[in-house]
Amino acid sequence: MISVVMPTLNAEDHLARTLSALVPGVVQGLIKEVIIVDGGSDDATLEIADSTGCRIIRTDHERGLQLWQGCRAARGDWLLILHSDSQLGEGWMDQVQVHMKNFPLRAGYFHLRFDDPSILVGLWAEMLALRARWLAMPSGDHGLLLSRALYDTTGGYKDQVAFEDVALSMALGRARLRPMGASLTTNADRFHAKGALWRGIAKSFRFLAYMFGFPPKPPVKKA
């Protein structure tokens, strides 16, 4: 019934834990398939995906393209979009089933947490929560559940290098988005790679630029 679509790139450190949280959904028949859309991993990501029975699609590492291709290949009536380092929390199946039964014309997102108790990361999580609540623009870290019919109606993900989550949220609009009660815990290591403060500031400026109509800058291509 549900196709889980997950973009990956060198995700071996977190992928197994993320997939383990989905096992009850597979066992009970709620999840039809898990699609790993890989952007060129050179670690054990694909081995983990293959050993756990995931469908694998290989593509470029731009997340918008990954999600577009993954959703296009999905065979379920519902789509669940997750990042590879985001683990669904207790009670997620009940919340998903309630949403599917009672809100088929809306997209649902989870309550976001990070696995880091530091003040800066907590502040960033709160900023993302405010963005989801007041601007109706949940981030990709929130996860997203929506019917295939609703996805197709909005035009789906765009093949763009960044803010594909914002573009889809804008296409959905506030009336077709709702928070779900279950939590989702995302790894915070990437905040420390460049420093939590600098990463938050840079991301905020890029978000504002995108909202004012400036397209996201393509990544530098390696020779």
From TrEMBL:
Q: Which domain of life is it from?
A: Bacteria
| Gene Ontology CC | plasma membrane
Boundaries of each Glycosyltransferase 2-like domain copy?
Answer: 3-100
Q: What terms describe the molecular function in GO for this protein?
A: glycosyltransferase activity
Pfam name, any one: Glycos_transf_2
- For this protein, the parts annotated as crossing the membrane are none
Instruction: Write out the entry's keywords from A to Z.
Output: Cell membrane, Glycosyltransferase, Membrane, Transferase
UniProt-annotated location(s):
Cell membrane
InterPro entries, per database record: Glyco_trans_2-like, Nucleotide-diphossugar_trans
Q: What is its main location?
A: membrane
Q: How is this protein named in the record? A: Glycosyltransferase 2-like domain-containing protein
Phylogenetic lineage = Bacteria, Pseudomonadati, Pseudomonadota, Alphaproteobacteria, Caulobacterales
